[in-house]
Q: What sequence folds into this?
């Protein structure tokens, strides 16, 4: 499926159902550092297998495979721990940023679509990541709908990624943490609200299937100060951003590399 026409300050031309948001239990919002696991350094290393016979050769190969897997896991854990170090200066804010507060902020952002008791229940499991240059936040949101339009069984479920626009200032950390982390929290709420609206459009049962699927292409976009590439179908350009569907079928909203239509005030 592809998204319907996206226009105006909202992604949708037509009214969307009112919804209420359900987040995980009362716990701090999950926040990690963006990690590149392509740097584990384990690929392509040649290995000789000294063995007295064919049986010994098989054992040697299996033993080497287990050792390599263990080394890769250790290296990956080391890379993840190093990546998460970027979040350490934010812990004073993040440890007090719980899902109830995030829900309130998302509802304010999405008003009047969001309500305490909407016709649609949106179950959301958001994971936020901060880029290593601290210029952008990346949201991966697992979204499930229960009720109209998905039906009582919650037949719609999808993962939506939203990459924030890169920060323009020279001191992104100071900007994020100013006023007790107000901008950081507000941006998290904005990303969640956008991901839900994208999923709502994707879940519509009528008028969402294109007559001929558009061709896939390599999409380049900025993740903070780093250029990323994704093989995907471009669904829509909107307000300097691209809505795309990647090869795994997941929706993404990313900053466009070239200028697109300006946003309304």
A:
């Amino acid at each position: 499926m592809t998204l319907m026409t996206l226009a105006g300050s909202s992604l949708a031309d037509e009214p969307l159902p009112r919804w209420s948001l359900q987040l995980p239990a009362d716990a701090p919002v999950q926040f990690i550092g963006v990690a590149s696991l392509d740097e584990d350094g384990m690929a392509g290393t040649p290995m000789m297998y000294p063995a007295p016979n064919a049986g010994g050769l098989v054992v040697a190969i299996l033993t080497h495979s287990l050792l390599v897997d263990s080394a890769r896991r250790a290296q990956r854990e080391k890379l993840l721990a190093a990546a998460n170090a970027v979040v350490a200066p934010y812990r004073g804010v993040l440890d007090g940023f719980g899902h109830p507060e995030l829900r309130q902020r998302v509802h304010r952002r999405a008003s009047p679509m969001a309500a305490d008791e909407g016709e649609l229940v949106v179950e959301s499991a958001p994971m936020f990541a901060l880029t290593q240059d601290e210029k952008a936040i990346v949201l991966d949101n697992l979204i499930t709908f229960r009720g109209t339009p998905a039906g009582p069984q919650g037949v719609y479920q999808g993962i939506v990624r939203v990459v924030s626009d890169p920060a323009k200032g020279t001191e992104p950390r100071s900007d994020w943490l100013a006023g007790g982390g107000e901008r950081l929290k507000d941006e998290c709420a904005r990303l969640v609200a956008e991901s839900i609206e994208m999923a709502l459009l994707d879940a519509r049962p009528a008028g969402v299937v294109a007559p001929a699927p558009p061709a896939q292409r390599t999409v380049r976009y900025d993740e903070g100060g780093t250029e990323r590439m994704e093989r995907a179908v471009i669904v829509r350009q909107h307000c300097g951003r691209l809505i795309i569907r990647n090869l795994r079928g997941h929706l993404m909203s990313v900053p466009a590399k070239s200028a697109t239509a300006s946003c309304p005030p």
Remarks:
- The longest strand covers residues 226-238.
- Confidence is low (pLDDT under 50) at residues 1-9, 39-57, 206-211.
- The radius of gyration is 22 Å.
